[in-house]
Specification:
Elements (H helix, E strand, L loop, with lengths): L10 H34 L4 H12 L2 H19 L1
Amino acid sequence: MTTFSTENVAAGLIKQVVSQIENLEEKKSEILSDIKDVFAEAKAHGLDVAVLKRLIKVRKMKEEDVAEEEELLEIYKKALEQ
């Protein structure tokens, strides 16, 4: 069984990694806040935020995945009509 001590842990490396992650987390929070502001502005202009979010999600998907999802959606909608 390995026991850990300050001798076998690279303290400098740990501090560096933790610092980098904390900086990235801060940047992430700022970016998420900016995105929230853009959605609020879009809503103020009368745009549907849910539709915008869906559009962004679809644009990230592969074309064949979008087609498959749309096909399944139509199948499910027709099943509900019966």
